[in-house]
Design goal:
Blueprint: E1 13-17, H1 22-33, E2 38-43, E3 63-67, H2 73-83, E4 87-90, H3 97-102, H4 104-133, E5 136-142, H5 167-186, E6 190-195, E7 197-199, H6 208-218, E8 222-225, E9 231-236, H7 237-250, E10 256-259, E11 264-266, H8 267-282, E12 293-296, H9 311-317, H10 325-338, H11 340-349
Helix pairs in contact: 1-7, 2-4, 4-5, 6-8, 8-10
The structure holds nicotinamide-adenine-dinucleotide and 2'deoxy-thymidine-5'-diphospho-alpha-D-glucose.
Nicotinamide-adenine-dinucleotide binds at residues 17-18, 20-24, 43-46, 48-49, 69-71, 91-93, 95, 110, 114, 140, 142, 172, 195, 197-198, 204.
Length: 365
Amino acid sequence: MAIGNGKDDGRPTWIVTGGAGFIGSNFVHKVRRENRARVVTFDLLTYAGNRDNLLSLEGDPDHLFVRGDIRDSPAVSALLSEIRPTGLFHFAAESHVDRSIENPGEFVSTNVTGTFVLLDAALRYWEREGRGKGFRFLHVSTDEVYGSLSPSDPPFTERTPYAPNSPYAASKAASDHLVRAYFHTYGLPVVTTNCSNNYGPWQFPEKLIPTVILSALEGRPIPLYGDGENIRDWIFVEDHCDGVLAAFDRGREGETYAIGAGNPKTNRALIETLCKILDRLASRTGRSARELVTAVPDRPGHDRRYEIDAARSRTELGWTPAHSFEEALEKTVRWYLANRSWWEALRARYDGSRQGIGRKQGEGK
Ligand code: NAD
Ligand code: DAU
């Protein structure tokens, strides 16, 4: 397993788990674009992982793709021994709430057992030689571990008690607790980030924003769960990746950092905004995409409101989001318009019969 033509020129090498998924691939592209480190992407290529997300890195001698499972302890240990990284960025997960409702066991297996296997192998590597290299384990987590806010609650901070509501959120909360325990018990240098809802290029079309864009482009119904008044706090994926890098560089060991860009929107309002952008950029019929919005039965246990107070990340890490919501949302729509072949290939692989892929159109729960 060689990277960088096998030469050790003192540049850092990082392992990125889940680097073929949505946020992971944006992160890998950013790190390679800025030449921050050599990168080994370790990814199982589940339905959500896609080699096409990393296509432009083919031929980059400082990027290596390794297909593997974070639950495979011998494979993970061998990877660490051979690569000898100074950083491990852990993005790999089962990430879609609706799927966790249909199949919770897969989430416990990947998100809990997988994180445990990684931590345990990282600890052995760190005790052996990682300590001398300044090795750090950066765990990428979510604001969903804090549960649901009522309208009058203040936004989540790092001090908000954990109260996960979906099997996905519970499995991520468990992984956060394991990460914390490996710091407190064994001293493994870890930093955790808890981020809000991301959007941007290469997001698998089961999540809300790509579902809306592709449904509008294909003239299919845009499913709106429940009353459409649930609130999510949106951040452009590159801003999240910057926050992860800032936490790795400047975060305190054993600490957690909430990351969010301060864009809370109801789903109804977000879809309205997206439809306006789509009408302007892509309308062929002269009819508004808004006409496609269709109420569907609500998600069971649907969290009402998320919102992040990112004050600690701003002050301690010196991190601040660089993108405005309206501009980045339009940039995202333009990306899907310009990259039809990317999502049409996914559509062909996951037959178009499942709306948003994760959920059948009009399916009751
Ligand atoms: P994603 O579903 O798009 O990608 C997950 C990646 O992990 C895929 O490439 C998949 O192949 C890989 N993977 C899954 N199981 C694996 C295994 N056992 N071994 C190796 N690789 C495996 O997810 P995403 O939206 O990019 O999220 C990445 C991380 O960020 C997750 O940990 C998620 O909890 C967290 N997060 C996501 C958001 C969001 O809005 N999407 C927000 C905050 C935090
Ligand atoms: O908050 C961070 C989390 O954001 C991440 O940890 C998760 O990995 C990520 O999937 C996301 O979770 P959500 O459940 O908030 O994202 P999703 O895109 O599935 O849904 C966003 C909102 O839109 C939610 O209130 C449900 C609603 N929705 C979703 C879909 C797919 C719809 O109304 N219609 C849809 O078709």
